[in-house]
Structure formats: structure tokens, C-alpha cells
Amino acid sequence: MNIKDIIIANNFHYKKSLGQNFITDRNLLDAIVKDGGVGKDDVAVEIGVGAGGLTAALSATAKKVYGFEVDRSLEGILAQTLKGCENTEIIFRDVLKMSDEEFKAVVKEPFHVVANLPYYITMPLIMRFLESGLCAKSITVMVQKEVAERITARHNTKEYSAVTVAVKFYADAEIKRAVSKNMFFPVPKVDSALLKLTVVPNKYGVADKEKFLKLTSAAFSMRRKTLANNLEAAFGTAKTITEKALERLGYPPNARGETLPIEDFIRLYDLIF
Q1: Which domains occur in the chain, in start order?
Q2: 142-178 pLDDT, tens per residue?
Q3: Does the predicted TM-score (pTM) go above 0.90?
Q4: 164 closest CA partner among 177, 150, 174
């Protein structure tokens, strides 16, 4: 009996509020594991286990799999779909509500996150692992196509945003594959993409991470305003200081946030602060 048959046999009712759209195609599930770079010596963490399709694929490859799920009504289904997966542990808890210490008490080794995420927690979940003290080596997640495009966007494009810069501050981002909405059950309204973030500790050597990210967030806060105006509003920094710093970097004084790649945001930060 395949996973879809098990779901139907258990009379499972999908919960729209939890963003439950499952993948049952084994070829795609195996490809996700491969794209996630998970090998026989690796620990994998899955968020949103669902019916256990990806969990089983991870179990066949990884040394250990920790799956986090909030919907306890899936317990009976998982007992069937994960039968024989001795290296797998399912934890019915919300990762976003766990402290670093609580998470480390469960997952004690460096790990790879691999998940078909409920879309409503995409950015909170990604930033949870990037900003924390947890030892995530990489984060490979199925997300809405437009979110993946925003995260991997280049400067001087409409998709480029504070989110792009925040993710790039911690990790190298790439889209591994596009995934049609028809690969999910139930079928969602939008297409998806598999996004891989390879975490690079202390990637840019910025001492005050919070201040830098506040600067980049302010830079995009009002896209129609100049960078100098936005920083004056956020920090009280005189426009002339920002304009002179921009000119030193080769930009006009009326430059906007979307014109700077992250490397120039780093240089601007060093010049101003």
C-alpha cells in the first residue's frame, strides 16, 4: 500500500490551517534528499513530517532522522508509513516554540534541515535556524516559487529585498529545482521550488549582526525613498553622511536600497558605523 492509499484508508482530513500539502512521488522525494546533500553519516531534521513520505526517503539515506510535527492526528499514519525506519524519531512539537536549549536536548549533533514546509511558516522557520545558535549545516526546503525567487534575487531587480539580504548574510542560496503544484496532494494554488541554503558561519565578519540587519531592513522600508532618507528615519543618521559614504562606494547620493548588493551594504555599514 502506497502513502496516498494509507492516507485514504485512515480517513485523514487535511487541515488547511496547517498548510498540509503532501508529496507522495518517490522519485521526487529521493531527489529532494539528494539535493539536500544528506549522506549516510549525516543527521537530518525534517519540519512538518506530514504523512512521512520525505521522512522515509531521508531514513533510507541518513544516519539519523528527527522529524518534527504539530498534528498528532497523523500518528497512526506515520506508524504505518515509517514502519521499519529504526533510525527515525518523530517529535510532536512546534520547532518555532522551542528554545535553542530544548532543541539541542533532542538534536545533539550538527544537522541538515530538509523539509516540505507549510508555506505559512517559511520565513520564520528559515530565519529561526539561520539566526539561532543551532548547528544547521544547510537548509533545503520546498517553498513557494516566488519566495525562492525573492530569496535568490540579484540586486537591481524588483524581487530583491531585505529578505534577500538577510538570508544571504548567513548562507549561500540557490534554487535546486522547480516543482509543479501537481506534484502535491491536495494540489495547492501555486507552483513551488526547492531552495537550498548552505550555511556559512560568520560569512561577512560583521560584529554587530543586529545593527547591520536593521540597516538593511531600513534600506528597503520605503522603496520609493532614497537610502539616505531611509537611514535618517531609522537611525537619525544625517543624510549627508550616508550620501558621502555612497559616493565613496561609487553610487549617486540619491541611490536606493535595491541598487546595492550585500557586499556593498557591508562596506556602507563599515563607513557609517
Answers
A1: 3-199 (3.40.50.150), 209-272 (1.10.8.100)
A2: 999 999 999 999 999 999 999 999 999 999 999 999 9
A3: yes
A4: 150
